[in-house]
């Protein structure tokens, strides 16, 4: 009689686990239902089974199939202009979050309360960083690491690094010149290689020459991010994913550790003033400045006696470098593409920038690199260029932030109601904030003059409404570096080179090479949508928000008038 007993046991087990599952779902949705009945703003269409998951469908249908989900959320946000805040319950895909797009509410969350980063953020960053890192840490641990790395990213240190950036951008420029009169190429690929090379140099003092050759670290990171998704279940539940990511993570660690150890030995030699035959480096990398801060903070001389870098410190520093590589390349590379996109779309602004560069650097474009290396602060004279870049960042912001709720905390919506954050965190949606018509007049127009006019002008923005790097204690540590990279790239290329997108030719080529399956699909479902609010170069979800199809383009010499 053994078998029937097993069946009974299995049956009981199944029922209890099913019951347990139902209880978890019920417990979650009940909390949301309470908020719903309290009148917390949220989309009407909510169900006990799927929450708000089906709400997005209508909005996703209104954008190209591969466009970033953030744009569907932005369109949904328009229905909540009266509160500038609404709850979406995508659980269990995501924790329940308020989508917030009003500067006052965001300032409460990020500046006033500085709510902690969410546990999901840490989970998603883990395969990329290997462990706890600046983006996902909280509390004292975050404070300690941020203070170690702040000196390396400070304005002065970044100005010292300008010559390195100039050198890399000169290679980028040469590569562009090589493409003149030749076929289509991906600008996103060029800018990604450029920003990777720069971040390796600035953070680790490692000359990777990645714009001209391959690099094991960059390749490993590429593998990790191609197996990365914030939400796509096909990627997330793939059984091989953890193994592949860990394998490539170890390759990254080996590379970074080798460089870290070299910098430690250099710093030690310099500290013990044993500069046998070596002069101290005049330009210090981020990691060298972090090592100096670490050694000063340890105070005791023991560290200097140690042969190798402390294991724990080295592990954590490696996680941070991995996160810099990720956060610093993707975002900046895609921003750079949109800078060229905007230069092509707004020839009147291109001319204004050319005139400004002639004034600041003299009429000969080839002199600018030398002048910049000698006097990096010339960048600060390029006021129109900065305004142009700010407007580009406003309309194409590639990041955002997610914060966890906290017991007892409420956030005030635009109508003045206090919304409870005990159970619900916040998703700060820059894509919606930056075109919020209450705070941005003529929100969809490209008007860099917003950032130049006097405060009494109607166009003058509320400083709290422009947050591409977020604001408050958890703002982006790399923002000075970004402004420098973008300004130098524009100064060294926009006077005599002109990039224009090649989507027409790209689409024609794709249509030509279309297989029978794709043809059938189009015959049944119609042509796929190809523009977002009229723009073919819309942003897609990859690790950061990248221009669709890598921004196919052509380059030619520009007429300078
Ligand atoms: C256009 C380029 C960039 C944009 C738009 C951007 C945007 C942002 C945003 C919005 C945050 C806040 C994220 C959050 O709260 O979850 C952030 C944080 C951060 N970013 Fe950037 N970023 C850019 C480039 C860089 C670069 C070049 C680095 C280089 C190291 C970097 C490193 C970081 C780090 C470490 C944090 C976490 C800071 C902390 O919490 O202490 N980012 N960034
Ligand atoms: C950059 O780092 C890698 C890994 O340590 C090393 O093999 C390579 O030689 C470094 N490049 C230079 C120019 O030092």
TrEMBL record:
Pathway stated in the Swiss-Prot or TrEMBL entry: Secondary metabolite biosynthesis
Listed InterPro entries: Cyt_P450, Cyt_P450_E_grp-I, Cyt_P450_sf, Cytochrome_P450_monoxygenase
This protein's record includes keyword Phosphoprotein: no
Molecular function in Gene Ontology: heme binding; iron ion binding; monooxygenase activity; oxidoreductase activity, acting on paired donors, with incorporation or reduction of molecular oxygen
Listed cofactors: heme
A Pfam family per the record: p450
Keyword Oxidoreductase applies: yes
Keywords: Heme, Iron, Membrane, Metal-binding, Monooxygenase, Oxidoreductase, Transmembrane, Transmembrane helix
Chain sites annotated for binding heme: 476
Gene3D superfamilies per record: Cytochrome P450
UniProt superkingdom: Eukaryota
Transmembrane feature ranges: 6-26
Protein name (database record): Cytochrome P450
UniProt lineage: Eukaryota, Fungi, Dikarya, Ascomycota, Pezizomycotina
């Amino acid at each position: 009689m053994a078998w029937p007993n097993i069946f009974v046991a299995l049956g009981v087990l199944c029922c209890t686990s099913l019951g347990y599952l139902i209880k978890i779902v019920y417990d979650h949705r009940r909390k949301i239902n309470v908020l719903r009945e309290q009148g917390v703003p949220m989309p009407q269409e909510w169900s006990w089974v799927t929450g708000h998951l089906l709400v997005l469908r209508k909005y996703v249908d209104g954008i190209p199939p591969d466009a970033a989900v953030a744009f569907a959320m932005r369109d949904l946000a328009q229905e909540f202009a009266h509160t500038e805040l609404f709850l979406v319950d995508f659980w269990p895909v995501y924790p329940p979050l308020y989508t917030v797009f009003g500067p006052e509410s965001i300032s409460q969350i990020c500046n006033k309360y500085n709510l902690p980063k969410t546990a999901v953020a840490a989970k998603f960053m883990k395969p990329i960083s290997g462990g706890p890192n600046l983006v996902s840490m909280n509390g004292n641990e975050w404070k300690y690491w941020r203070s170690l790395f702040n000196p390396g990213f400070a304005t002065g240190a970044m100005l010292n690094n300008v010559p390195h950036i100039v050198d890399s951008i000169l290679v980028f420029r040469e590569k562009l010149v090589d493409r003149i009169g030749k076929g289509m190429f991906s600008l996103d690929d060029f800018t990604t290689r450029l920003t990777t090379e720069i971040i390796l140099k600035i953070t680790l003092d490692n000359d990777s020459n990645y714009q001209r050759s391959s690099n094991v670290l960059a390749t490993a990171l590429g593998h990790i991010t191609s197996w990365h998704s914030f939400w796509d279940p096909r990627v997330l539940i793939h059984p091989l994913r953890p193994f592949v990511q860990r394998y490539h993570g170890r390759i990254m660690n080996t590379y970074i550790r080798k460089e870290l150890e070299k910098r430690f030995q250099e710093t030690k030699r310099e500290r013990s003033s044993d500069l046998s035959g070596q002069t101290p480096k005049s330009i210090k990398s981020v990691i060298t400045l972090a090592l100096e801060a670490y050694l000063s903070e340890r105070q005791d001389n023991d560290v200097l006696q140690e042969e190798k870098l402390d294991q724990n410190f080295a592990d954590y520093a490696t996680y941070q470098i991995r996160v810099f590589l990720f956060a610093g390349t993707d975002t900046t590379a895609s921003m750079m593409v949109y800078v060229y996109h905007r230069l092509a779309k707004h020839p009147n602004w291109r001319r204004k920038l050319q005139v400004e560069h002639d004034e600041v650097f003299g009429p000969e474009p080839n002199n600018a690199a030398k002048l910049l290396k000698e006097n990096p602060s010339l960048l600060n004279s390029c006021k129109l260029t900065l305004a142009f870049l700010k407007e580009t960042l406003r309309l194409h912001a590639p990041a955002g932030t997610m914060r966890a709720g906290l017991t007892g905390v409420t956030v005030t919506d635009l109508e003045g109601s206090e919304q409870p954050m005990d159970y619900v965190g916040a998703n700060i949606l820059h894509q919606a904030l930056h075109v919020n018509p209450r705070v941005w007049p003529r929100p969809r127009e490209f008007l860099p003059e917003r950032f130049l006019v006097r405060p009494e002008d109607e166009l003058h923005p509320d400083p709290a409404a422009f947050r591409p790097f977020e604001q408050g204690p958890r703002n982006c540590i790399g923002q000075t570096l970004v402004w420098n990279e973008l300004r130098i790239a524009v100064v060294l290329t926009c006077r005599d080179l002109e990039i224009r997108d090649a989507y027409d030719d790209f689409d024609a080529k794709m249509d030509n090479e279309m297989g029978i399956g794709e043809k059938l699909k189009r015959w049944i479902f119609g042509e796929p949508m190809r523009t977002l609010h009229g723009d073919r170069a819309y942003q897609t979800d990859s690790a950061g928000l990248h221009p669709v199809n890598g921004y196919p383009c052509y380059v030619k010499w520009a007429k300078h008038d």
